[in-house]
Amino acid sequence: METKRYDETELKEAAKALKAGELVAFPTETVYGLGANALLPNTVKKVFSVKGRPQDNPLIVHVASFEQVKEYVDNFHPETEKIVKNFWPGPLTLIFKIKKDTLPSVVTGGLSTAAFRMPDNKKTLEVIELSGVPLVGPSANTSGKPSPTTADHVFHDLQGKITGIIEDGATRIGVESTVLDLSNPTAMPMILRPGAVTKEQIEAVIGSPVAVDQHLVKENETPKAPGMKYKHYSPDTRVLMVRDSDWSIAVQWAKNKKIRAGVIASPEIADQVRTDTAAVYMYNDNSVEAAAKGLFAGLRGLDEPTLGLDLIFVQVYPETGLGNAYMNRLKKAAGQNYFEK
User: Is 198 annotated as a binding residue?
Assistant: First the structure.
C-alpha cells in the first residue's frame, strides 16, 4: 500500500480512516504513535503484526478528554482528579482497573487494567475527537528499536505497511510518557515507567509519596505497561554507556582496537572526541532536556548501515528529574552495559 502523509488540512480524512479500522501514525509531544481504533480487535491485532510486537504487551489508549475514560472505568483512585487536572493533556499515562469487557483483551494484554493518556498535541486531539473513538498508539516503529520522533522516522520503518502518517515535525520531548499505576484505589500511586512528568512533580500535586517500580521485566513476563522490558529501544549497532570521566579512555580503546565508534553526546563532550571517532551525533546543548529530545534520533542516525559503525558510545546523565527517563531508555538500548576501563 502507499503510505500517505497527512497535513493539517487532511485531519478529517485521517480520522475517517482510523474509525474505519485503518492504521495511521500520529504525533504527540513525546514520540509518534501508531494509531488504530481501540474498539476493533482485528484492527489492533494489525498494530502488533506491523510492528512485530509481542501480543502480551499492553497498549496505551489515547483519549481526547477525561470524560472518555469514564466510559471504561468506574472506580478511580482518590488522587485521580488532582493528577488529571494538573497533568492532562501531557506526557503522563494513567493505569486504571477497567469495567469488564469494555475494551478488547488484545488492547489490555489480557489484564484487568488499561492505560490511558491524553496527549498534548492539537492535531492528534482533533483527530481523536473527529474519529469519535479512543485510539491505541504504541510507538510507530519496528518493535524494540528506537522510538520515532519525526514523521520521517515513521516513514522509514513503516512505509507501505500503514495507511498514513499525520505530519507535525519533530516531537517536543522525545521520550515516552511517564506511566503511573492508579489501578488500586487504596494503594500508593506507583511509577512503572519514568518520563517527563517526574515523581517529585506528582508528589507536589497530591501531597503524598509516590512509589517507583524498579523491576525489569524479562522476555517471558507480561508487563503491566509498555516499555518495561529489560532490553528495548535498541539499534542494531551495539551501544555502550560512557561515564563522563571515561570518555578519553573509551575513545582511545576503540582507536587502539580499530573499532569504528560513533558518539552521541552533548556539545561539551562531542567537541572533545570528534577527531578520534568515526561519527558524532551532537545534542542541541548540554542540558538533559536536549539529551532526552535527541537520544532516539541519535540512535537511529548512527545506526545507518552506510556509516558502518561497530559501536555507539552514548553520554550518561544524572538520574534525577528528566534524567531518570533519559537513563531508563538509554540503559535498555545498551542492554544495561557501560564501557568499563
Answer: no
Q: What is the mean pLDDT of each run of 10 residues along the chain (341 residues)?
A: 96 98 98 98 96 86 98 97 98 97 95 97 98 97 93 97 98 98 97 97 98 73 65 87 97 96 98 94 98 98 97 98 96 95 81
The answer to whether 112 is annotated as binding is no
Known binder of ligand: residue 287? no
Domains defined for the chain, CATH in brackets: 4-212 (3.90.870.10), 238-334 (3.40.50.11030)
328 belongs to an annotated ligand binding site: no
Q: Does this model's pTM top 0.90?
A: yes
Residue 171 labelled as part of a binding site: no
Q: Is 147 annotated as a binding residue?
A: yes
Which ranges of the chain would DSSP assign to H, the alpha helix? 11-19, 41-51, 66-69, 80-87, 105-108, 122-131, 151-158, 199-206, 247-256, 267-273, 288-302, 322-333
30 is in an annotated binding site: yes
Q: Is 62 annotated as a binding residue?
A: yes
The β-bridge partners of 166 are: 6
Q: Tell whether 232 is in a known binding site.
A: no
